[in-house]
Amino acid sequence: MRNMLGVIEGAVGVACCGGGALMAYGVRGLSATLFAPSVYRGARSRRSVALTFDDGPSESTPELLEVLSVHRISATFFQCGLNVLRLPDIAREVLRRGHEIGNHSHTHPRFYFRQSAFIRGELSRAQDAISNITGFSPSLYRAPFGVRWPGMREAQKRLNLLGVMWTVIGRDWKLEAPAIVRRVLSAAGNGAIVCLHDGRELEVRPAIETTIEAVRRLIPVLKADGYRFETVSQLICPMN
Ligand SMILES: [Zn+2]
After folding, report:
1. How remote is the CA of residue 144 from the centroid of ligand 1, in Å?
2. Tens digits of residue pLDDT in 204-236
3. Out of 55, 99, 197, 198, which one is annotated catalytic?
4. Over residues 147-152, mean pLDDT
Protein backbone atom coordinates (compact mmCIF):
# COMPACT_ATOMS: atom_id res chain seq x y z
CA MET A 1 0.00 0.00 0.00
CA ARG A 2 2.83 2.34 0.82
CA ASN A 3 4.22 1.73 -2.66
CA MET A 4 0.89 2.59 -4.20
CA LEU A 5 0.59 5.76 -2.17
CA GLY A 6 4.12 6.68 -3.09
CA VAL A 7 3.32 6.32 -6.74
CA ILE A 8 0.15 8.37 -6.48
CA GLU A 9 1.89 11.07 -4.43
CA GLY A 10 4.74 11.06 -6.91
CA ALA A 11 2.35 11.46 -9.80
CA VAL A 12 0.47 14.25 -8.07
CA GLY A 13 3.73 15.89 -7.05
CA VAL A 14 5.01 15.87 -10.60
CA ALA A 15 1.70 17.24 -11.86
CA CYS A 16 1.72 20.03 -9.25
CA CYS A 17 5.20 21.07 -10.27
CA GLY A 18 3.95 21.69 -13.76
CA GLY A 19 5.27 18.33 -14.89
CA GLY A 20 1.91 16.80 -15.72
CA ALA A 21 2.79 16.80 -19.39
CA LEU A 22 6.10 15.10 -18.60
CA MET A 23 4.28 12.45 -16.57
CA ALA A 24 1.81 11.85 -19.38
CA TYR A 25 4.66 11.65 -21.86
CA GLY A 26 6.52 9.15 -19.67
CA VAL A 27 3.45 6.93 -19.46
CA ARG A 28 2.25 7.07 -23.07
CA GLY A 29 4.89 8.84 -25.23
CA LEU A 30 6.13 6.72 -28.12
CA SER A 31 9.76 7.67 -27.60
CA ALA A 32 9.60 7.94 -23.78
CA THR A 33 11.96 5.87 -21.67
CA LEU A 34 11.23 7.53 -18.32
CA PHE A 35 9.70 4.40 -16.75
CA ALA A 36 11.23 1.66 -18.89
CA PRO A 37 13.64 1.23 -21.79
CA SER A 38 11.89 0.98 -25.14
CA VAL A 39 12.32 1.61 -28.83
CA TYR A 40 9.75 2.89 -31.30
CA ARG A 41 11.57 2.48 -34.59
CA GLY A 42 14.51 0.56 -36.02
CA ALA A 43 17.59 1.37 -38.06
CA ARG A 44 16.96 4.14 -40.60
CA SER A 45 19.84 2.95 -42.76
CA ARG A 46 17.82 0.20 -44.44
CA ARG A 47 14.61 0.37 -46.42
CA SER A 48 12.87 -2.02 -44.05
CA VAL A 49 9.79 -2.03 -41.87
CA ALA A 50 8.47 -4.40 -39.20
CA LEU A 51 4.85 -5.47 -38.99
CA THR A 52 3.80 -6.24 -35.43
CA PHE A 53 0.58 -7.85 -34.22
CA ASP A 54 -0.69 -7.56 -30.64
CA ASP A 55 -3.20 -9.41 -28.44
CA GLY A 56 -2.97 -12.84 -30.08
CA PRO A 57 -2.91 -15.63 -30.57
CA SER A 58 -6.56 -15.78 -31.62
CA GLU A 59 -8.71 -18.11 -33.70
CA SER A 60 -8.08 -15.81 -36.68
CA THR A 61 -4.29 -15.76 -36.40
CA PRO A 62 -3.88 -18.73 -38.84
CA GLU A 63 -5.61 -16.74 -41.61
CA LEU A 64 -3.19 -13.88 -41.05
CA LEU A 65 -0.26 -16.34 -41.08
CA GLU A 66 -1.43 -17.53 -44.50
CA VAL A 67 -1.33 -13.97 -45.89
CA LEU A 68 2.17 -13.45 -44.51
CA SER A 69 3.32 -16.82 -45.89
CA VAL A 70 2.07 -16.00 -49.38
CA HIS A 71 4.32 -12.93 -49.34
CA ARG A 72 7.16 -14.71 -47.47
CA ILE A 73 7.14 -12.11 -44.74
CA SER A 74 8.34 -12.47 -41.15
CA ALA A 75 6.55 -10.38 -38.54
CA THR A 76 6.51 -10.00 -34.77
CA PHE A 77 3.61 -11.15 -32.61
CA PHE A 78 3.21 -9.68 -29.12
CA GLN A 79 1.18 -12.37 -27.42
CA CYS A 80 -0.77 -12.39 -24.16
CA GLY A 81 0.05 -15.31 -21.84
CA LEU A 82 -3.59 -16.27 -21.29
CA ASN A 83 -4.26 -16.38 -25.02
CA VAL A 84 -1.19 -18.59 -25.47
CA LEU A 85 -2.54 -20.98 -22.81
CA ARG A 86 -5.94 -20.98 -24.55
CA LEU A 87 -4.55 -21.57 -28.06
CA PRO A 88 -1.18 -23.30 -27.63
CA ASP A 89 -1.11 -24.85 -31.11
CA ILE A 90 -1.61 -21.47 -32.78
CA ALA A 91 1.08 -19.89 -30.60
CA ARG A 92 3.49 -22.63 -31.69
CA GLU A 93 2.46 -22.26 -35.34
CA VAL A 94 3.39 -18.55 -35.25
CA LEU A 95 6.92 -19.49 -34.24
CA ARG A 96 7.10 -22.44 -36.66
CA ARG A 97 6.37 -20.07 -39.55
CA GLY A 98 9.47 -18.05 -38.73
CA HIS A 99 7.90 -15.14 -36.86
CA GLU A 100 9.17 -13.60 -33.66
CA ILE A 101 7.12 -13.72 -30.47
CA GLY A 102 7.14 -10.93 -27.91
CA ASN A 103 5.59 -10.61 -24.44
CA HIS A 104 2.37 -8.53 -24.21
CA SER A 105 1.61 -9.29 -20.50
CA HIS A 106 -0.51 -12.14 -19.21
CA THR A 107 -4.01 -10.62 -19.00
CA HIS A 108 -3.63 -7.28 -20.83
CA PRO A 109 -4.32 -5.00 -17.83
CA ARG A 110 -4.03 -1.24 -17.62
CA PHE A 111 -0.93 -0.67 -15.53
CA TYR A 112 -1.87 2.80 -14.24
CA PHE A 113 -1.43 2.95 -10.44
CA ARG A 114 -0.53 -0.74 -10.21
CA GLN A 115 2.07 -1.95 -7.75
CA SER A 116 5.44 -3.20 -8.91
CA ALA A 117 4.68 -6.76 -7.79
CA PHE A 118 1.58 -6.83 -9.98
CA ILE A 119 3.50 -5.59 -13.01
CA ARG A 120 6.29 -8.09 -12.35
CA GLY A 121 3.76 -10.94 -12.06
CA GLU A 122 2.01 -10.03 -15.31
CA LEU A 123 5.24 -9.96 -17.29
CA SER A 124 6.70 -13.13 -15.79
CA ARG A 125 3.49 -15.18 -16.11
CA ALA A 126 3.33 -14.28 -19.80
CA GLN A 127 7.02 -15.05 -20.23
CA ASP A 128 6.52 -18.48 -18.60
CA ALA A 129 3.42 -19.28 -20.68
CA ILE A 130 5.13 -18.36 -23.97
CA SER A 131 8.38 -20.14 -23.25
CA ASN A 132 6.73 -23.28 -21.79
CA ILE A 133 4.37 -23.66 -24.74
CA THR A 134 6.48 -22.53 -27.69
CA GLY A 135 10.00 -23.16 -26.37
CA PHE A 136 10.88 -19.56 -27.30
CA SER A 137 11.77 -17.06 -24.62
CA PRO A 138 10.90 -13.51 -25.77
CA SER A 139 13.40 -10.67 -25.54
CA LEU A 140 10.84 -8.03 -26.54
CA TYR A 141 7.88 -6.65 -24.63
CA ARG A 142 5.03 -4.39 -25.66
CA ALA A 143 3.13 -2.66 -22.86
CA PRO A 144 -0.67 -3.15 -23.06
CA PHE A 145 -2.27 0.10 -24.28
CA GLY A 146 1.29 1.44 -24.56
CA VAL A 147 1.14 2.36 -20.86
CA ARG A 148 4.46 2.44 -18.99
CA TRP A 149 4.47 2.80 -15.21
CA PRO A 150 6.96 2.83 -12.32
CA GLY A 151 8.00 -0.77 -11.65
CA MET A 152 8.01 -1.70 -15.32
CA ARG A 153 11.71 -0.96 -15.72
CA GLU A 154 12.60 -3.43 -12.99
CA ALA A 155 10.13 -6.04 -14.26
CA GLN A 156 11.58 -5.83 -17.78
CA LYS A 157 15.13 -5.96 -16.44
CA ARG A 158 14.44 -9.14 -14.46
CA LEU A 159 13.27 -10.86 -17.64
CA ASN A 160 15.73 -9.15 -19.96
CA LEU A 161 12.95 -7.58 -22.02
CA LEU A 162 13.35 -4.56 -24.25
CA GLY A 163 10.19 -2.49 -24.62
CA VAL A 164 8.85 -1.95 -28.14
CA MET A 165 6.40 0.85 -28.91
CA TRP A 166 5.59 1.73 -32.52
CA THR A 167 6.21 4.31 -35.21
CA VAL A 168 2.61 4.08 -36.39
CA ILE A 169 -0.45 2.34 -34.99
CA GLY A 170 -3.12 1.26 -37.46
CA ARG A 171 -6.12 1.86 -35.14
CA ASP A 172 -7.30 -1.35 -36.72
CA TRP A 173 -9.80 -2.02 -33.94
CA LYS A 174 -11.77 0.95 -35.21
CA LEU A 175 -10.96 1.93 -38.81
CA GLU A 176 -11.93 0.26 -42.08
CA ALA A 177 -9.19 -1.42 -44.11
CA PRO A 178 -8.58 1.44 -46.63
CA ALA A 179 -8.22 3.95 -43.77
CA ILE A 180 -5.81 1.64 -41.91
CA VAL A 181 -3.71 1.32 -45.07
CA ARG A 182 -3.65 5.10 -45.63
CA ARG A 183 -2.69 5.72 -42.02
CA VAL A 184 0.19 3.24 -42.09
CA LEU A 185 1.49 4.40 -45.47
CA SER A 186 1.48 8.05 -44.37
CA ALA A 187 3.96 7.18 -41.62
CA ALA A 188 5.96 4.46 -43.39
CA GLY A 189 9.68 5.11 -43.62
CA ASN A 190 12.97 3.35 -43.08
CA GLY A 191 12.90 1.44 -39.78
CA ALA A 192 9.18 1.99 -39.14
CA ILE A 193 7.49 -0.31 -36.64
CA VAL A 194 3.81 -0.82 -37.52
CA CYS A 195 1.38 -1.83 -34.76
CA LEU A 196 -1.66 -3.90 -35.73
CA HIS A 197 -3.72 -6.56 -33.92
CA ASP A 198 -4.49 -10.25 -34.41
CA GLY A 199 -6.65 -10.27 -31.26
CA ARG A 200 -8.67 -8.02 -28.95
CA GLU A 201 -7.15 -8.30 -25.50
CA LEU A 202 -8.48 -11.64 -24.15
CA GLU A 203 -11.57 -11.89 -26.35
CA VAL A 204 -12.46 -15.32 -27.72
CA ARG A 205 -12.96 -15.36 -31.51
CA PRO A 206 -12.30 -11.63 -31.96
CA ALA A 207 -13.26 -10.00 -35.25
CA ILE A 208 -10.01 -9.08 -37.00
CA GLU A 209 -11.11 -9.32 -40.64
CA THR A 210 -10.38 -5.65 -41.27
CA THR A 211 -6.81 -6.10 -40.05
CA ILE A 212 -6.30 -9.08 -42.35
CA GLU A 213 -7.78 -7.16 -45.27
CA ALA A 214 -5.58 -4.15 -44.50
CA VAL A 215 -2.46 -6.35 -44.38
CA ARG A 216 -3.46 -7.95 -47.67
CA ARG A 217 -3.61 -4.50 -49.30
CA LEU A 218 -0.65 -2.98 -47.47
CA ILE A 219 2.06 -5.52 -48.24
CA PRO A 220 2.11 -5.16 -52.06
CA VAL A 221 2.19 -1.35 -51.78
CA LEU A 222 5.11 -1.37 -49.36
CA LYS A 223 6.93 -3.95 -51.46
CA ALA A 224 6.44 -1.86 -54.60
CA ASP A 225 7.88 1.06 -52.68
CA GLY A 226 11.06 -0.94 -52.09
CA TYR A 227 10.54 -1.99 -48.47
CA ARG A 228 11.73 -5.26 -47.02
CA PHE A 229 10.01 -6.77 -44.00
CA GLU A 230 11.99 -7.69 -40.89
CA THR A 231 11.14 -8.88 -37.41
CA VAL A 232 11.61 -6.25 -34.72
CA SER A 233 14.83 -7.89 -33.50
CA GLN A 234 16.23 -7.76 -37.02
CA LEU A 235 14.99 -4.21 -37.56
CA ILE A 236 16.62 -2.74 -34.45
CA CYS A 237 19.94 -4.43 -35.17
CA PRO A 238 22.12 -1.90 -37.03
CA MET A 239 24.32 -4.67 -38.43
CA ASN A 240 21.65 -6.40 -40.55
ZN1 LIG B 1 -2.72 -5.00 -26.70
Report:
1. 5
2. 999 999 999 999 999 999 999 999 999 999 999
3. 197
4. 92
